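Morning, I've got a small favour to ask if you have a moment. I owe you a coffee for this, so here goes:

…
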Amino acid sequence: MNLFKKLAGEFIDIIEFLDPTQNTIVHRFERYQNEIKNNAKLVVREGQMAVFINEGQLADVFSPGTHTLNTQNLPILATLKGWKYGFNSPFKAEVYFVSTKTFIDQRWGTKNPIILNDNRFGMIEVRSFGTYTFKIADPGKFIKEIVGTSGTFTTDQINDQLRSAIVTRFTDSIGEANLPIETYAANLNELSTAIFAYMKDDFEVYGMDVTKFLIENVSMPEDIKKEIFELSRLNHVDLNKLMQMKAAKAMEAAANNPSGVAGAGVGMGAGFAMANQFGQAMAQGQTTTQQQQPMTNTPPPIPGAIAVSYFVALNGQQAGPFDLEGLKQMTTNGQLQRDTLVWKNGMANWEKAGEQGDLTPLWAQTPPPLPNM
């Protein structure tokens, strides 16, 4: 039986490899006792390289094509074997077929969350995942550094090592970028490009070439994500109107609650009066509770009359707009004076209240300042 295997091995004169899996990076051509006949045919297909190893030493490398194995086509192996005048008997050598095609859709991701120190949110945990593609650029170096003596080497066997290198580079890159956490989604392309440059150097050590690297997502805890969404909405919301709306809803809810303010006999009218005072307090930027002003019955504006509506500068902040009745009340309280800055629609700039003709009646209600004694 052993003699039959030996004779069968010696008569194998075609060396080739067809990959049925599509994920094999390296395959060692198996023969009986590694014996190759003189003038045997080596078939290397497109997307492959054939590497000859002699007693652990890298010898000749063949590109795609059909090659006749003899001393002319095996110059390095002939030197290692000491063939000076050719040979006629079978010789021993290991033949590795290395796939040089691009291996696409390789997945990577962070097994454990990465801890970052954000300027606004403090220490937070993020996770990320994406894809990358690679190919073998130097078959001899790849066999020496990664494969070793393995008979077959697939993408599954190297993915863990490559993922570790990618996650390390990802962690370093986002730390050095020092970007606010809410801007990661808008900068995935920039982060991918930065990490891609690092990865090419890392993979080159193994005889590999990274052809593409993409970050698909950077995720964060749900509470941080919710807070970021709320902050982004506030940048597009009129806070003055928002607080007035919330106050009105709160008063309405209290009026409909039998055990609340309405049940105590105050009623809807008092509730809306409180909401109106609260809205004015927010507009004027005050933080202390104002005393409730007595309610007075005033007639509605005369039909066809033009309503006066001014914004008033109070404590360095814009308040209003206020109608004539509101301005009268502010004059009485001393909040509105002649040199107080005001503005209404149609004015180019803020001007003093005392210079506005339609506000002249306000000063007739108050005595002039005392002369210097």
Observations:
- The chain is about 35% helix and 25% strand.
- Residues 155-177 form the longest helix (23 residues).
- The longest strand covers residues 122-136.
- Residues 1-10, 261-275, 285-296 have pLDDT under 50 and may be disordered.
